[in-house]
Amino acid sequence: MTLVTTWPESGPQTIVRRTSDPAEIAAALAPLGVRYEQWPVRAEVLPDADGDTVLAAYREEIDRLNVKEGFATVDVVTLHPSDDPDWPQRARAAREKFLNEHTHDDDDEVRFFVAGAGIFYLHVAEEVHAVYCEKGDLLGVPKRTTHWFDMGTNPAFTAIRFFHEEDGWVGNFTGSGIASRFPGFDAIHAALALERGA
Asked: pTM of this prediction?
């Protein structure tokens, strides 16, 4: 289930919008130029499936989007908790890379969540929109849109990434500390789990 929460950029004391209704989400994100789609979930694709398996399972949807967008590269990123003693350090480093506000000059940031969840925070027109995505959700953040991404302190997701540029992910960091003023993935994820009775 996608969840969008919107606050004024001044902070999370006031909620402007909070919705999990797909039509309302699409209506809120479309004026920002954000691509939002829900693709069928392939139950046979396990969360820790290798990249080739994931790409094969979603080939039809990938090809359809590629016809529209002409992506140069499509790949799979997987981060799931591990018994590896280096896991906490790897998880922390992965999270910190994307947690600070940034933009992309030459490419949209397009992700489809095969498993798990993450939150894109879009800082647009004096508002911050937290878009909680989980399996089945595709989000495309337009280039030059100020945003950040939080995968939580213990990341658990598999996502297909789409790039127009061969260089892949290149971020321009704003130096703003705005991300620290808003609820992170862990808080939103925990509250959502309580609402769902999990």
From this structure: 0.95
